[in-house]
Amino acid sequence: MHVVCTQCGSINRIAAGKPACEGRCGKCGATLFTGQPADVTGDGLDRQIARSDIPIVVDIWAAWCGPCRVMAPEYEAAARRLEPDFRFLKLDSEAEPAMASRLGIRGIPTMLLFHGGHEVARKSGAMPSSQISAWLRQHTGPGRVTA
User: Fold this and answer.
1) Which is deepest, 93, 102, 121, 136, by most CB within 10 Å?
2) Per-residue pLDDT for 104 more than 50?
């Protein structure tokens, strides 16, 4: 399984049978899964989507957005529960307007799910962590989402 480091962008291979949650980046030494969503730039998101073997969940948000602030702790709770089966990322639409435009973001918060280099699903609006898990289960199958 290949996983992109959120700190340096290096591609890391996690051997079968090794616990992914214990993985560290071979280049910078950062923990590959922290149980917290990682902030990402547009270029970083492109690299994650293109090179990671696990599904990528992206929260498109902005600091001024009330629903985004309400959803942030729920998104963090989902990340704590579901990593390393998923990579949880946050893209600030104010800091990355070109990427938000390229992704066709019309309202925030919007969650996008990518797998195999392609967008699989999107959902706009704040939701609790249980609903985030159910949404991911709906689009990846019951075996991948356990919570």
Assistant:
1) 136
2) yes
Which pair of structure tokens corresponds to residue 135? 């949404």
Rg (CA), the chain: 14
With a CB cutoff of 8 Å and minimum separation 6, the contacts of 105 are 60, 93
Question: Which band of pLDDT confidence, cut at 50, 70 and 90, is reported for residue 57?
Answer: very high
Instruction: Decide if 70 contacts 40 (C-beta within 8 A).
Output: no
Which of 5, 8, 25, 68 is the catalytic position?
68
| Rounded Cα gap, residues 147 and 143, in angstroms | 10
Please give the C-alpha separations between residue 100 and each of 49, 58, 59, 60, 69, in angstroms, as whole numbers. Answer: 15, 11, 11, 8, 18
Omega within 30 of 0 (cis) for the link into 142:
no
65 in active site:
yes
Is 68 catalytic? The answer is: yes
